[in-house]
Amino acid sequence: MEYENEYQQQIPQSRYECLLFDVDDTLYPLSSGLSAECTKNIKEYMVKKLDIEESKVLEMCVQLYKDYGTTMAGLRAIGYDFDDDDYHSFVHGRLPYEYLKPDPVLKSLLNSLPFRKVIFSNANKAHVAEVLGRLGLRDCFDDVICFESLNPKNQTANASKSDDEAVGLLPKSPIVCKPSENAFQQAFKMANINPHKTLFFDDSIRNIQTAKLTGLTTVWVGSSQRKNGVDYALESIHNIREAVPELWDLVNKSNDVQHSQKIAIETPVEA
What we know:
Helix content: 40-55%
């Protein structure tokens, strides 16, 4: 027993317990064109469902996204009342998901890492499931935090606008989403995540910067430039191994120790 404990203590301890991933424009590239189609659907929803003048839609989209993290949260903040499911059905339900193809390279990378993996997306559950399915990654993740997780129906219908959701002097939104620090804290509780031992991947610099404030180690996907709040930066999620080699260094060291332990146990001792 003492012999086994000695080897157990020699197995390197990782600084990470969990890998936390955004979905859109993170697990697949912006160049896929899916996000552009999503933006197109949002604009169409604003015109057809909310009767917003078409000439004002583009500017509103840009400003609300900048102020609140999602156009949806911004629309609710400034007083537009609509059904969450209807919005998601119109915006995500009509997307050309065929733009996304299976990604065996990413699947292999994710499966080679023996860490807990969790999705953290502002999108609705059906969209997240469809994207993961198209990419062939559904079985790569242990948990999913999405729109419905942070915004249960009974809460969004009668949401109280708490001080936590204030955005400067702007109206508060009843919708909880990134980059709100409250969204991160709720996600940590729901998925039992220790932010100080978690690596967070996202394409949004605002989400990354808030994440850093919560104690997460951050990976900005889609850019090789380092900015304030960014610990690692990579052009593509496929570059994880090159950008964060320590993840595999730990795995290799652990495998080496376990292999040495196995040899030591199997080698007969002659007296």
